[in-house]
């Protein structure tokens, strides 16, 4: 995992802090107790965390039979999982389209 490689490279990982100020050679951070500290550094890498944001699913489900939610809208994760989930949902959607087209052809034949 990435976090293990960073630790192996002696990268200091600081969690649960807010960034107050970034200067050319330092950063000021604040913890949950409002204690601030300045750290002298060369580089800053942010990992802000994610959470799902899906405001449309509920309203769409009221109007449509088949609503598919994919990727980070379900659960934030890796790009690999998002691609796999998207592929699987596309496969299901394709099956529904084929069934609908088959049913339409059947109606046209009758």
Structure description:
This protein is an alpha+beta fold. It has helices at 2-8, 57-63, 79-109; strands spanning 18-22, 26-30, 36-40. Residues 106-110 have low confidence and may be disordered.
Q: What's the gyration radius in Å?
A: 24 Å
Poorly predicted runs of 5 or more residues: 106-110
Averaged pLDDT = 81
Fraction in helix: 40-55%
Give a quick account of the main beta sheet: strands, pairing sense, barrel closure: 3 strands, antiparallel
Q: Order of helices and strands, N to C?
A: HEEEHH
Percentage beta strand: 5-15%
Major β-sheet strand ordering = 1-2-3
Question: How many β-strand stretches?
Answer: 3
> In angstroms, what separates the terminal alpha carbons?
58 Å
- Which structural category fits the helices and strands? alpha+beta
Tally the helices: what do you get? 3
Tell me, what's the shape? elongated
Produce a short descriptive summary.
Helices cover 41% and strands 14% of the residues. By secondary structure, the protein is α+β, with helices and mostly antiparallel strands.
Write the layout of secondary structure elements.
Layout: H1 2-8, E1 18-22, E2 26-30, E3 36-40, H2 57-63, H3 79-109
Antiparallel strand pairs: 1-2, 2-3
């Amino acid at each position: 995992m990435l976090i293990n490689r960073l630790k192996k490279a002696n990268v200091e990982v600081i969690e649960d802090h807010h960034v107050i100020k970034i200067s050319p050679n330092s950063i000021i951070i604040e913890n949950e107790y409002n204690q601030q500290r300045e750290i002298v550094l060369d580089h800053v890498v942010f990992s802000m965390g994610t959470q799902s944001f899906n405001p449309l699913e509920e309203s769409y489900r009221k109007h449509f039979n088949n609503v598919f939610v994919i990727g980070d809208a379900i659960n934030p994760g890796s790009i690999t999982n998002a691609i796999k989930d998207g592929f699987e949902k596309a496969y299901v959607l394709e099956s529904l389209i084929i069934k609908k087209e088959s049913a339409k052809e059947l109606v046209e034949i009758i």
